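Exercise 3.2. Students should predict the tertiary structure of the chain below and write it as structure tokens, then compare their answer with the key that follows.

Predict this chain's 3D structure.
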Amino acid sequence: MEAFVLSPGGDRIDHRRQTAPGEGWSPGGAFGEPDTVLAATPSAAVDATGRIHVFAVTADGRVRTRVQDRPGGGWQPWTSFGDRAVDPWA
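Answer key:
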């Protein structure tokens, strides 16, 4: 299991993962992009291969995404999810 939390003001995402089913949690740490403010709590979904995809909307309306290298593995860098801006406050 993995957990993501957004700080008040949207300037920091933290991430923790459960070390094994029914066990404790990793110490966690920063998961977002430095100097990027988010408009809302990120969403996460699991694909057919078991990798988690995290989606976030920045304060300027850009959608960003980050995906695991493999199920339970490390994370690829944040990338743009299209060029079209959305209204982050709608």
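Discussion points: Residues 4 and 88 are 19 Å apart (CA to CA). Residues 2-80 form one domain.
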